[in-house]
Amino acid sequence: MKFAYIVVCCLFPSLIVASDIASRTAHCDSGNYSYRLFAQTPATVSPAILLLHGAGDEASNFIGAWKKLAKKEGIVLIAPQLDRDPKFEDVALPVFRCIIGDAEKFAAIDPKRIYIFGHSAGGYLAYDGATLDSEFYAAIAVHGMEINPDYTWIVTKAKRKTPIAIYIGDRDEFFSVERVRKTRDLLINAGFPVHYTELKKHGHDYYYLSDQINEDAWNFLKNKQLP
Q: Strands 31-38, 21-28: parallel, antiparallel or unpaired by DSSP?
């Protein structure tokens, strides 16, 4: 599904300050990939969100927008620095599993409560996770992205109907409400549980409403888990 880019103490010694964002590198079959990790010293196994930023953005910015909520809710955040090469999509899903596996060395992650939140190009990859790796992610949330009309077949590949939250601004400069409604309807007709929100007077800039979007997305995600 090719996409066009638009715009711990004793248990976790490598996280020097447990509440800080750590920079790490995962060594995967297709290469080495950097990511940011936020993990507080866990008292219990924690849910995790894979954060997939938009084209031209940085993982450090994207994880920073979630840190306050994650600290409050006890969420592990994993934010890969995404490659802008469209060929990355060919290896993205195994790379994401590899990065999460690396993060599990330093954080106690509940394997039944791993989620994705993606914006724009990151949202495109989130739809891949929800359909092509549906038995790994409990639920996903996407801001500012559709399923490309040429790749609607991906919904037929899902072994599980992953719950999906979709957020779109009614003034999005790149993806119209009408186009994203088609994605919503495609998923609903295929049997996926969908939470759909149109954001009034909002464009493509995720950060402008990130606190509001994150809170609503987490309220949707947090009660979903794999069987």
A: antiparallel
